[in-house]
Each structure stands twice: as structure tokens, then as C-alpha cells.
Amino acid sequence: MRNNTPIDAGLPHPKKNILAFRAIQGDNNVVQIFDLTGGQRKKIKDVKISGKYAYWSWANDDILGFVTDSSVYHLDLTQGLESSSKMMDRRANMVGA
Questions:
Q1: Which residue range forms the structural domain that includes residue 27?
Q2: How would you write the pLDDT of the chain (97 residues) with one tens digit per residue?
């Protein structure tokens, strides 16, 4: 994240020395994930996701689940730096819930 973008939240990986950060930048959520193994700070994920943030959690050792007001995304650590996968849209009665 650029120095002028304040971090909204951080989420540590439950098993690995990995830390995810979330920030709001305009209408987007910016998610960056860093591997801190061995005292280094290697960026392994840097994505922008549109929509209002609702929830995020580690789904397993390699996937961070990210839920917005309208969609559900997976950020797979084994995929490219800027890749994310939209898994589904939320049902209309779930939007904003």
C-alpha cells in the first residue's frame, strides 16, 4: 500500500509467518499479503477488490476468503501476485447483511 493509504486492518495467518493487510482506497478494498519468514518482508499478494468490505478469514493454509457486500472472493497464495478469484455473488437478500 502506498504510504498515504492507511491500513484498516491486519490478519495473521494461523500457522505460517504470513500477515494480510486491508485498506480502503476509494471504492476498492486493497489487500496485500506478506511472507515474513526469515525476517524478510516478501509481498506475495497485492489485489484490489471492489465492493464494501463485510468479512475476511483464512479458509485454509493457502486461501484467504474475502467477502464484500455483494460477492465472495478467494485469494490463493499459490497463484500470481495480483490474482483473486470471484467464487460467487451473494444472494440479494444477503447484500448488506
A1: 9-89
A2: 555 678 899 999 999 999 999 998 888 899 999 999 988 899 999 999 998 888 999 999 999 999 998 899 999 999 988 889 999 888 777 665 5
Mapping DSSP onto H, E and C, the string for the chain reads CCCCCCCCEEEECCCCCEEEEEEEECCEEEEEEEECHHHCCEEEEEEEEECCEEEEEECCCCEEEEEECCEEEEEECCCCCCCCEEEEECCHHHCCC
The CATH number linked to 15 is 2.20.25
- Please report whether residue 30 resides in a domain: yes
CB atoms within 10 A of CB 42: 11
How far is the CA of 17 from the CAs of 35, 41, 87, in angstroms?
A: 6, 10, 26
pTM: 0.85
